[in-house]
Fold these 2 entries.
Entry 1:
Amino acid sequence: MHLQRLVLPTYFWLFVLYLFTPLMVIAVMGFRDSNFVAFPINKWTTDWYHEILFDRDIQSSLWLSLRIAVVSTAISIVVGLPTAFLVARTKGVLRGALISILLLPAFLPVIVSAISLRIFAGKIGLETGMLAIALGHAVASMPFVVIMVLTRIDSMNRNLVDAAQNLGADPIIVLTRIVLPYLSPALFGAFLFSMLLSFEDFVRSFFLGGFDQTFPVLLYSRLRFGFDPGLAAVSTIVLIATTCLGLFAERILRGRRARSSQQKKGSPTND
Amino acid sequence: MTRFLVYSRRFALYRGFNTLYMTSPATRFLMVALLPLVWILLANVAPLAQMVEISFRDTYPLQPGEEGSYSLQHYAGFFEKPLYFRAFLRSFVFATLVTFATLVVVFPVAFYISKAAPKSQRARLLLLVVAPFWVSEIIRSFAWIVMLANRGAVNSFFGWFGMPGVPYELLYNNFSLSIGVIYLASLYMLLPLYSAIERIDDNLLEAAANLGASTRRRITRIILPLSLPGIVAGCTLVFLLTVGLFAMPVLLGGPSNTLFPAIIAQIFHKAGASWPQGSAYSILLTIAALIYVGLFIALAGRRGRGAKP
């Protein structure tokens, strides 16, 4: 069995190399003591990291991206939660239709979605800029939020709600003391997911943006018109931060899945 | 929290909400459905409908007092301009090739993680491969620029070994673009493949092995047919991602091989009456991509049914 013993593991680790080498290379490049991005690196410095922290454009673009991520996530959760309730209540053809309209933004070519939103924003008189981008990002992350919350709702035991109601809980108590705590892992996962999606988005920010640039848009324009190792330094910081957050979100969502499959089997699994 | 709830019970808003919710199933439904339905209408339906409408207009935005007129000129114009038509075809060919390449590259990885690796390590290996998922398209493009530039990592690596003809022209052509896009798309392929292959019963493979089936036979007769749903899902995702890709082709691709999304962006950013044209081309791209993917799914579905005894 050469294939299983030798070829497949080797291939797998080559693939891992393919995934990680570019990221390592960009991290290393941030320490090059020169104005140009090039190899070999003969002199090393940490100056770029100092410099990048005080670069006004980069600071403000990161700050703008963060604010947009927060606003768009707030919107997508406030709208996504009742949407998941709505889908959970509908059945049959109606449910299928509702889900396909909801998932539409995730299947459109991104550029088409971005341009349609830009035209629509112009039509309703919404200025390009922060709010327009945040709304655009909320449109993009809504499908994911709804699906994550919906899977959690579907695994919920209806008896919990009925029992609370029989014991005299009013709808708000049921919502805040029973339903929301049960949904909290999915909500938290959806929150992180939506933050990351927004923070990483380029195309929607590019078309819906005004004068101020979000971080990906700034990076894009610098990559087209001249860049230095400082850009590699800030990219490294951002990629480490987003990767850590992403793995954290993944852990939360996986923990949820593991727990719910345990509940279904009714016995603890041993892996 | 409890205290806050007890306290807020004194207010009319709280009681009002509850009474309203309890009045009748219809009001209850309305309270849940109002916000979602308004959102779906405004965010998912209206922009697309608006885009379709504008694509038939001759000019947009209208000047004050101008009467709008409708025609098919922008759709007809598309087929008369070989420059645009060629970019459109190039996008579809490119996306198809990249999708197939991604499938070939990722399939062994998915198989290794889900079946061949030691059981205790599988979760960890999956996590390792999933980790770079959250690095954005732009940063990934940047990383490949640093890798493939004339004085980039790969060329300096080759030069270090004294390879003749260094530096090679690796960047700003179809090669660098394909490498970057496969890099970007591999995760969208990996996850569906992983979950499909993981579901295959180990006993089937063992039984086949006991009955003397060679490794190749087990792959072609058991693993490939049974992972078909994963292959279809992965290819669909990767194709739809690739065909609409805008930033990476601009950053990594060559100047002569413009893809269709870049053309749409160009038309859209021009001043003047180009919004209707951009809308028409966007709709052509969307419809063509969805039909293409739909045909693929239908075809694969028939194959899959045919393969079963």
Entry 2:
Amino acid sequence: MSTVALSPPIEKRIERPGRFILLLRYLRRNKGLALGVVILLGLVAFTVIGLMTVDLKQAYPLSVAAKKPPSWKYPFGTDFFGRNLLAAMVVGMWQTAFIGVFAGGLGTLIGVVLGFISAYFGKWIDATIRTVCQILTPIPVLLIQVVIAGSLDKRDVTIVTMALIVVLLAWMGPTLVIRAQVLTMKERQFVAVAKLSGVSDLGIIFKEILPCLLPFIAAAFVAQVFSAVFAAFYLAVLGLGPLREPLLGNIIWAAQSQGAFFNGWWWWPIIPSVAMILILGSLALINMGLDELANPRVRRSE
Amino acid sequence: MSLKLVIRRLLFLVLVIWAASTIVFFIPRLSNRNALRERFGELARTGGFSPADLEKIIASMNQQFGLDRPLYEQYWTYLGNILHLDFGYSLYRYPTTVAELIAQSLPWTLGLLLVTTILSFIIGNLLGAVAAWPRAPHWLRAFATPFILLTGVPPVIMGILLLFFIGFRLKWLPLGGAYSVGVVPTWTWTFFFDLMQHQILPALALIFGSVGGWVLSMRGMGVTIQGEDYVNFAEHKGLTGGRIFRDYYLRNAMLPQVTGLALALGTMVTSAIIVEGLFGLPGIGTMLNLAIRANDFPTIYGIVLFITIAVAVLMTIVEFIYPLLDPRVRSS
Amino acid sequence: MNEMLATAPARPSAGLGPRHAASDGPILRVSNLEVTYYTDSGRAKALDDVSFTLNSGEKLGMVGESGSGKSTLALAMMRMIKAPGRIEGGSVVVGGGDLMTLGAEDMRKARLSRIAYIPQGAMNSLNPVMRIGAQMIDAVKSHLPREGRAAIEARCKRALQSVDLDAGVFRMYAHELSGGMKQRVCIAIGILLDPHVIIADEPTSALDVVTQRQVMETIDNVQKAINAAVILIGHDMGLMAQFVDKVAVMYAGRLVEVSTVREMFTDPKHPYSRALISSLPSLGNKGVFQGIPGLAPSLLRLPSGCAFHPRCESAMPHCSTIRPQQQVLPGGRRVTCHLYDGEA
């Protein structure tokens, strides 16, 4: 028994602050997201300006004097093999960005497609995809990547193959996320209405469900870029990367192999490490910020 | 937990091990590299025997390892061997078996991994829980922030930073190795002390590198739990803050974290392996590093398989422990 | 079981039994209580100048639309308003002492022992990983640290018995109980320390109709046994009318009327109460379901003057400019409306 029955609203609409003000207010609370975006933009600027102004040949061995500590001429110093670390950072950053976006994007794409197929068509298709994901998930991905990268001929290991190796075992996460989202979406009324009014399966997927999933796909993409960069970095640190390239992990591997700290060449491993911290840190901050945006329950309680 | 569920979990474990073994068996065979030829070709070049001898040796080796038999037969033998944890011989250190190599280096890795996993799990969850607890003092809640900022930093980079600041700049701790050069391993306190000194930085790298993740997930969990009705009712009951925190908030927020621990095991092991390589500790990680450098494929595959199996088994164990913590799962 | 409840002699109390006489003046005196929520979009006054009194053994039903401030009132009386909300002023005097002036530790001790809160227990108010017994014991222990284990356990089992639960519930977990049983456990916890005042916040929502009655009867019985003052929060006026002595009506954070049940149903004073009563379906006006025109106002932008004036049938010109004050009419009824200006 309810005490109140409602008749049509007669109240004036409440005026709300403008969208831009709200966005700024939100960013002030979600400082992580703001900081992440700022760092990432800084890295992009560094790479773009670097690609235009720095002599990129110096990113490869025997191009400059070896083992020079940071100075005005070489702001990041040079390494044992005669690489200018500034040029190496510019190229390495660009390659890292390529691997991240390429592998992250491809992984997300595979995940979205499989997730949709799995959730939308259900039955044995769903069961198969889900089981495969569940079996592959507990296997430490990096180790399988080690097997794959190790089995390749060294000449076949390039930036692109690195990215492909990373993708090979990185689609399970987004698949499961998108599958779960589509499943809840399917239960919503508007999908049922569309179905009843005779919209085709593909029509429903593209017109009704996909737009609602964009925030989740965006979040999955950022997470995928993060793990792709992470995985490629680990492979390179183990010496399984394209050894000629100045990929950040490769530089650390080389520095470690030559005992950089024992020999006092501290800048050699430190420079790529700081670069990696900035890359992964900004991605992690953005990822957390998006999480907070998409899932208000995680929002800080202060 | 019902018997049916136990059987299903065990079946799943077998499936995971089978899938990993199969991947590790077939991937190398899809590639064009021939481990034996590379290894003995190298030996031939450095002197020793003629190309004709090389072919003979490879043929006899192929026979010895059963590589001349049909693929499905090799696959069956291989799966059978896996069951006995027989991963074959190391190419580089022939005739030592891969299992022996693993057995030698396992204690090192296990010790490091056990200590760092437990410490980072406890520290991270406590910090995260406090960070999400509105009644905790501000200075205490702020402790979590630097660790959250570290979330994105891989343990190996943490290790490089620690090496730089504490090992290289301050010279407080050694730059690597298991123990100081020239020290003979003995059962004495001096040696033990020396050993521990070399373990501190790798351990710190692993702890700092993984604490942030726990802080973050626990904080998220905590925000959810502290809004639950039972936490509110506990306060209405007039319980002390400490009791509400421990029995109502922490205990419930920890449950998903235990599942998280099972899922994080793989990452922890991977990180430990890479950090070991960085510091040159004589564990499985360094073994893997050497094997990669030496193209010692049976050792690479053996180590990968062994770790995969170990992680899968540990995950299953954690899943079996979980019902002891959550009465809802126990009765269903 | 209903019959058993009705014929049973006075329920055994969990603790010391009736300890305060009914005629000793009001056991609860709430005066000028004010709560504001500071949100991003502005301030919301969730409780505005709320005053009422309650005697031992009396039962008050608190009704109003959702968002009218009923639950805020309950939380404010327990001093459990969380940020961004804040208690701005007023006093809650229970048995002689003002809760608002207590230190944090004394307030903690006052909860459950002087003023108890019974939540909507059917859903999620019990800790899923602790046995019911442990959740009762820790409640007693945190107030009576020197009581022995056996005495505490006996007290808890008496409380369970008085809400008609089997002693076996003591060793069970929340997920093993039905919704009605969980609600009874919450009531049992609420009476563990014989509080002066019990606040039950929508104790019957999410329960089926039969269980609703049983739970209400349980509250009725334990209330009689310990002679506590009870505030029942809910929106089901019909169910409430059968169990309470007085009804309080809230609108937009203000208490607009407090009357006895009989007065409220036969002669509601405030126009909003009138609208509420006439919107109740009854056997007489079958099929005609009368609502109250308009929507409950947003607390962020309250109408000026009397917040109800845009929906009020009897609105006068000055209703939109002058805020009415609560007045106590002859006979003790309280009403906040310009219609009764000068009658107090």
